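fyi for ur records
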Amino acid sequence: MKKLTNKAILGSIIFSSSLNNIYLEKNALLVIGPNGKISDLIKRNEDRYHNEVRKYRYSQSLVEIKGHQYLLPGFTDLHIHAPQWPQLGKALDIPLEKWLQKYTFPLEAKFKDENFAHFVYEDLVRSLLRAGTTTAVYFGTIHQRATQILAEKCIKFGQRAVVGKVVMDNHSQCPDYYRDSSTRDALDDTETFTKFVEELQKNNEGKIYAAITPRFIPSCTNEALYELGKLAKQSNVFVQTHCSESDWEHQHVLDRCGKTDTEALQEFGLLKKSTILAHGNFLSEQDMDIIKAQQANIAHCPLSNFFFSDAVFPLRRALRKGLSIGLGTDIAGGPSCSVLDTAKNTIFASRALESGVNPFVQREGRGLSNSRVSFKEAFYLATKGGAQVLSIPAGSFEKDFYFDAILIDTEVEHSRISLDKFIDSDEDMIQKLIMLSSRSNIVETWVGAVSV
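which gave:
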């Protein structure tokens, strides 16, 4: 793996510093320190710029990218079902509760076979890095060893990752062939897995993290959820689960617990600053207030919401509330592994919510007003916003942030990106790169200044 530490990169960069700010800095100089973090960003209008460029060029420590290439921060994907990688792009034809039983649980059960886990997870991690996902949050399976293999693959290929061994101990909702053998075993395996990841962390620069992972309330007994809540309170690990994803799941929790997912998760002790709640399509105003008070986070999965929720998460409303939010592909509920695609779908979903889609309803009553999300906001959520959910200094080109980055080449074969400096403003160029870039445009990926 090629390292860029103790070097400087000269070229055009695009990054966000906040939800509504996005920058294109042409011919900027990024200085990368020995820890893989950005130690300086020098813009071409600064007095010291030319001297610094000469200094790094003279010392042969300067990496110059071409005029048709652009550096973007690496993407953070807050919600991935790693074992569903072979399912990506298929089996999206039925409601969530039937989809799980017919397609997903049979596939996930196959990860009892360690050789199968090695094959799938190696392909998954390498593919996501090529797609620009420098930080990934993974659900594994109920299998202890297979989920350890997933964590090891992330280390092997250099991806930052949060990984969780899934808990599914509820006999009434989980099939006999795919569930934890007992509640006690599920809890013990979770604790063992978190300790395994802690050991991995010691020699890997903190790139790998563990997550307590009850799949969702329907798949877990109350006993397991309470005990996982205690473990979450005692430990310093992440918590990840689904929350108010579909009508079925949301109603199941109301019927069983007499309260919403959010209220129940709070009672179980599973809401905290390091909690990631996937989806949240049916969150009430009160639910959002609870999530904000507990400093928990939401993984917005716009594409899979269309397939399994028949609803659009009210992202604009949640942002106005001040909730902490990033993006998730929800492999394989969403048929794309690209966070860049997810950012685009975030924009499309917000427009669908605001404008409405039913042609038999009068225009003024068709949508939910003030729901639109801009390309600037979607890009921020895909980069710095997602990293901030995880409290990782990444996703931007600011000082002391990790150099987690991708290189976009606009002139690769069959590229859809056409930039014209005489017609396109800087903002036009940014929009085009966000909306038109595809996997083929990503020609290099770095994590902590190491090419992966």
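The first helix runs from residue 49 to 58. thats all i got for now
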